[in-house]
Amino acid sequence: MIATDRNSRIAHWLVVAAGMSWLMAAGAAAAPLPADHVDDFAGRPRLVVLSDIGNEPDDQMSFVRLMLYSNEIDLEGLIATTSTWLRTTTNPQTMREIEDAYGQVRPNLLRNAKGWPTAAALKAITKSGQTGFGMAATGEGKDSEGARQLIAAADRNDPRPLWVAVWGGANTLAQALIDVRATRTPAQVATFVAKLRVYTISDQDDAGLWIRQEFPDLFYIVSPSPQGGVDYAAATWTGISGDLLNHEMLGADTSIVSDKWLDASIRKGPLGKHYPHVAYIMEGDTPSFLGLIGNGLDSWRNPSWGGWGGRYFYRAPKGEKHSVWTQGGDMFSRVTSQDEVTGSDGRSYLSDQATIWRWREAYQHDFAARMDWTMKPYREANHNPLVVVSGNAGSDPLTIDAVVGQPVTLDATGTRDPDGQSVTYHWFHYAEAGAGTGVGLAAVKIEGDDAQKATVTPTAPCNPVWSLEHSSCPAIGVAHIILAVTDSGTPSLTSYRRIILTVHGSQPK
């Protein structure tokens, strides 16, 4: 049975996945969100960015891309910070220069899509955070414009959670939490913390670890690391383009993250001119907001679902007491944060970075098309396909009750390209999606994976583990089916739809 109402779909998934545990957690504000929690809200995701922009080129690169998705995300704070690489200064003026260039191209962006904020509105939320390094620059009497902006955004009367993307050091977030804890009751602090969704690009000062220790209930995505960057190569976020720097990261197509490709596709027009050349890695910070883009993958609902910003596992990292969204998992059962993906050479690769680079052609082509929007009228630019599954338009995930051995038909009739181009269909089982959320990962087979209609037949409520004799298969599992629809334009653009099968071993009563 397909649940068609938006709220009932998500509620149905939550009930099957792990009862109503997340609702109990919401009622007890001091409790951390459990691994099976799914965010459901109307409207675009909200975001505050903390960036050590000006330290080296990749923050500026990411900021240019962010401007081109400002109609997809409600930006509520753009805060210049320090980091281990930029210890004594912040550079909000660099953000403002890029915002000025964005203002020049906004009229043409409005010819291609709706919802673009004004440059003046972006400048109004551009602030400086802590101007010193790490926790030494925080404490009583050390508040900053950036910390106040973050607090104001979280305090806004809005049911949507507030994402905080940390591109550099986290001490401005730490200062905000210090100020809130000093002026509010424990219950009010818990309510404030419950609103935040933090995604950090490793640990670039000592504030991240302090935050995780002092506020264990805070929703936090991180690949923990020493401050000097020695563990960066292992981090999930390097899948954005890190294979050019880390020669052990194999399988991805390097051509579309090279300066040659960027020169031809991105560095053009008033905004593209602010996109610098690669020094170490292209846009290492971009994964922190890629998952918030409304492309139909909706990975912002739960980090285990996976999407353009990567896929994560809920566990306590080595040396830490509390669970966060991070890397790792159960290697014995093969339920981890790693994806197995076919690389550009046709070989299979298993890695955390693959959870991002598997989408590389799509996210790079999408970026290039949007840069075209800054200069071209609608009729000369390319735009994303509009996906319909089983009569349901939009981008919200669908949930379907299924039974082992009984085929389920998925029908994309009604899908269209707004530019009138032909489209191709690709249905695939994202086998790792949902790992670690307390439910089994079901096994399925797909027929017609390149057709408008596909047939998905569950074969087991759980995938068999490799050799554990004591393992058991639960009676209910889930399988995430992704439909990718790609148009024939230049560059080609892909839109998605996620279908979550709740697989029963027998007909539910």
What does the model show?
- A hairpin with a 6-residue loop joins strand 20 and strand 21.
- This protein folds into two domains: 45-290 and 310-357, Inosine-uridine Nucleoside N-ribohydrolase, Chain A, CATH 3.90.245; 383-504, Immunoglobulin-like, CATH 2.60.40.10.
- It is built from 14 helices and 21 strands.
- The protein is α/β, with parallel strands linked by helices and 509 residues long.
- Strands 1, 14, 16, 17, 20 and 21 form a six-stranded mixed sheet that branches.
- The chain has helices at residues 6-18, 21-27, 57-67, 92-112, 119-124, 145-155, 171-183, 186-194, 207-214, 259-265, 269-272, 287-290, 354-357, 360-373; strands at 2-3, 46-51, 74-80, 126-128, 162-166, 196-200, 219-221, 313-315, 324-326, 329-330, 335-336, 339-342, 348-351, 398-403, 408-411, 423-430, 440-441, 443-447, 453-460, 476-487, 494-504.
- The longest helix is centred in the first third of the chain and has 21 residues, at 92-112.
- Helix 3 (57-67) runs parallel beside helix 4 and helix 7 (171-183) packs parallel to helix 9 (207-214).
